[in-house]
Each structure stands twice: as structure tokens, then as C-alpha cells.
Specification:
By secondary structure, the protein is of the alpha+beta class. The chain has 5 helices and 8 strands, in the order ααβαβββαββαββ.
Length: about 280
């Protein structure tokens, strides 16, 4: 927390608590999904035209599957205070002191490229998230709470190996698919002041930086195609979406620098729920 603990931060967006971030993440997700599904729709229509007449039946048709898109939301609390464990007695708790101990919303999108379909699917994924929390800003000189507010923003980027055990679903149509993820993280973070500028301490320190880390996740996907199989097949024929699922995922993200010292810790152990589209 080298830069963060130096900066006097007072921020705009008083009381927003991530609402604007959620809207931004939702808009980005919709635009991204539209761009991704455009070629999938063209591919699906081309497959239908090339298919023999006996497989044009919407209940038999299935387009090729190469990607998965996921939109997730869940509680988050960066473990900033873990940096100070063992440094003093009692340890300092700047995040708890200035931002409270409550969770705020983390919004995430992820795109996976499924490179192998054999006894499950193996893919490579890239994801991006958005987190924002507003609290009381500390004074630059003594660290005491001021009359201003401070906003911490975190934008984590993840790179994952993703395995989905969908063999039983594909063979027996059992709609629950367990999956796991393992990968690396790079998280950009910043603290802004009351003028919506990056906070500084007057000695060259700024409230902006990035932290490396890693993550491991395990989850379950409920394939909801069975609610309306005909609509699901039409969705595939029209837009190239093979399956739609609801997801629940538990994640441990250790974003504390991968051994580097004096890095702002912005990881967490938490859960998220979302929507998954495979196409």
C-alpha cells in the first residue's frame, strides 16, 4: 500500500457505492456480447444452409461451439489491511477505518476460448472487473479522518485456464456442470480526491498503481436449456448460442504482488453469480 497510504484522498461520487460502476460494466457487457454474437449468428445461419435437409429440424440442429461469455456479480472487499498484519500491535486497518468493513459490488465479464472438447471442455479465458468504494478521506499529515470523502477504484484483469466437466450433460443431458479456473491477475487501482484527481501526498507519492496476483475458482453451472428446449434450439439456430446457464462461483484471489513488497493488496475470498452463454 505504498502509494495508497501516502495519498490524501477525497472523491467525487459521494454515496455512489459502485452504482455508476455497475451501469458501466453492464453497458460494456452488452456491447461486448453484441459484437461477439454477430459472427456466431452468421456462422449458425451458414451451418444451416450447408446442412443436409434431415438435420434442419430445430430440435436436431446444433452449431459449432468455440467460446463462452460470462457476466458475473458478487460481493467484494479488498484485503488492503492484510498488508499491515505483523507490522504493529495492534495492526493498522486503514481500509476498515476509512471505507468500513462492508462488502461492495464487484462486476465482471469473461470470455473463454474453448480449445478442446474431450471428456469436458478446456479453455483459455480473459476477464475484467470493476469495483468502487467511497469512504472518509484521511488527512495527509496525520492520517486522521478529514471532512472529505475518498474513492478507491479497482479494475482487475484475469487470465485463466478453465475446465468445465460437461461430459455428463452432453451425454446424458444432466443440467448441472461443475467447473474450475486457475490463473493470474493484474489489478489496476486508484484513489481520487475531491477534485476527481489522483491523490498525492506532496512528496512524490500518488494514489495509483497496479498489483499482480493469482486466483483459483470452483463453480457450478445450471444449464437452463431444458426449461424450453425448442426456444433453446431456435436461439442456437438464430444466434449461434449453444447453451445458456446460470452460474455460482467461489473464488480465492490473492492479489498482493506475487512476492513483491509494498504492494496494495486488493484480493478477496468471495463468491459471485452470473449468466453464461456458450457459442
Amino acid at each position: 500500500m505504498t502509494h495508497a497510504r501516502r495519498g490524501r484522498a477525497a472523491a467525487t461520487g459521494r454515496g455512489a457505492n459502485g452504482t455508476s460502476g455497475t451501469k458501466i460494466a453492464g453497458l460494456v457487457a452488452l456491447v461486448t456480447l453484441g459484437v461477439l454474437l454477430a459472427p456466431a449468428r452468421a456462422r449458425a445461419q451458414s451451418d444451416i444452409l450447408d446442412a443436409p435437409p434431415d438435420v434442419i429440424d430445430p430440435m436436431q440442429y446444433r452449431s459449432a461451439q468455440h467460446f463462452a461469455f460470462e457476466l458475473r456479480f458478487g460481493p467484494y472487499r479488498p484485503d488492503v489491511d492484510s498488508e499491515f498484519v505483523g507490522r504493529s500491535n495492534p495492526p493498522r486497518t486503514p481500509y476498515k477505518d476509512y471505507f468500513t468493513n462492508s462488502n461492495r459490488l464487484m462486476s465482471q465479464v469473461e470470455l473463454d476460448w474453448q480449445i478442446l472438447h474431450q471428456f469436458g471442455s478446456l479453455g483459455l479465458g480473459v476477464g475484467v472487473g470493476y469495483f468502487q468504494v467511497t469512504g472518509t478521506a484521511p488527512e495527509a499529515l496525520d492520517g486522521e479522518p478529514s471532512g472529505d470523502t475518498s474513492t478507491l477504484k479497482v479494475v482487475p484483469v484475469s487470465f485463466s485456464a478453465v475446465y468445465r466437466f460437461d461430459y455428463i450433460f452432453e451425454r446424458y443431458n444432466f443440467p448441472i456442470v461443475p467447473y474450475g479456473k486457475l490463473g493470474l491477475d493484474w489489478a489496476y487501482w486508484q484513489i481520487t480526491d475531491g477534485n476527481n484527481e489522483i491523490a498525492t501526498d506532496g512528496m512524490g507519492g500518488t494514489g495509483r498503481g497496479a498489483t499482480l496476483g493469482w486466483h483459483a475458482s470452483a463453480g457450478l453451472a445450471l444449464i437452463i436449456d431444458f426449461f424450453d428446449p425448442e426456444a433453446a434450439h431456435d436461439f442456437d439456430a438464430d444466434l449461434g448460442v449453444n447453451h445458456t446457464a446460470l452460474t455460482f462461483e467461489g473464488t480465492h484471489a490473492d492479489i498482493s504482488g506475487l512476492g513483491q513488497k509494498d504492494r496494495l493488496h486488493v484480493g478477496d475470498t468471495t463468491w459471485s453469480a452470473g449468466l453464461l452463454l456458450e457459442f
